[in-house]
Amino acid sequence: MNVSLKVKKVIAGVAMLGVAAKAAAWGCPPVFDSIWLASFTSGLTTLTNGVMGMVQSVNLQELYNTQQEMSALKVQTKQIAASAEKEVANMSQSMQALASTVVAQNQAEQAQKVMEQYGRATGQGYDPCGEETKSREVTSAYANTSDVVNMVRGSIDAGPGVYKDQKIVLGARVSEHKAKFCTQSEVDAGFCSAVGPAPGASLTFATMMIGSKVGDVNEDAKNAFVNHIFGLPDQPLNPAIAQTPEAQAYVRDKMKRDGIRSIAATSFKSIQSMTHADPAAASSSTNNNGYVADQSFVDAMKAKVDQYAGGDNYHVWEQTLAVQSERGLLVNLAKMGAFKLYLTSVEYDQYERMEANLAALLAMENRGRVR
Q1: Is the pTM of this model over 0.85?
Q2: Long-range contacts of range 126-131, CB-CB < 8 Å, 24 or more positions apart?
Q3: Which of 105, 119, 322, 329 could form a disulfide with 115 if both were Cys (CB 3.0 to 4.6 A apart)?
């Protein structure tokens, strides 16, 4: 601003000199001295050139300053833009990191909830795999009890429709008793030579409640006990007299007795079937989903019930319930409810046999009255 003011003053001075020269030329006595005019003209030219050079220099300086200012503004603008961009990038990274943290935290919370609600330790009740195995053992063992009809026909000497020589049957029973069921008292009496592996087992109902497998001595004792209850079988008919009225009456009387006695036989064999295991029969059953039971129905039931009633696994079961989630407790409650329904169905089958036995007893009483 000061440079421009000086320039203006110089220009104004030059202009005033020109005016003064003209005024002197017109108002004063004219000066026609050639030396004076030449000097005056030369000085004016020099002064004018100097002023113009100064003006040009000032303009160049102003242009340079303007360019420097523009460059500084560009640099400053770039710095501001770079700083703003960096700030935006930092803020974006911070927001992304925060979002990732929140997502990870939510995922961890959801995973924890899923594990708590559906995990094996807290969301599936007590020992889910073991419980499934025990349930399959129970159902498989119970499916095996459906073979009662064959057990009645095959193991009872005096079964329905069976005719056997009483002497042969009695001899076989005595031989079996001496080999397997002799007691010390019978040995002392001279009836047997040694005490059997299951002394007296064929003479007590308690044997019916002992777990056994097909072919072992306890299973033979159960069959012997039932045969003692039903006595000797009916003598077979002589083919020569089979068509006589007396033989026909004999057969009809046996059929009546077999019909009534078969109900009791079914009950005995049902009890026996619940206390013995037959893996071969279980593996061929269509009701066990291919699972083979290695224990009797009563033993399988006992193993499952014991954990609720103070058995070997009771304390583990009790401790497991303490850490279960609400869903885990509900799952466990649902399993117990399902097992209770299953027991109810088993009891229903037992009630049906009881009703049949009562009906048979009533039929026997009515038959005696009719006679």
Answers
A1: no
A2: 126/307, 126/316, 126/317, 126/320, 126/321, 126/324, 126/332, 127/313, 127/316, 127/317, 127/320, 131/335
A3: 119
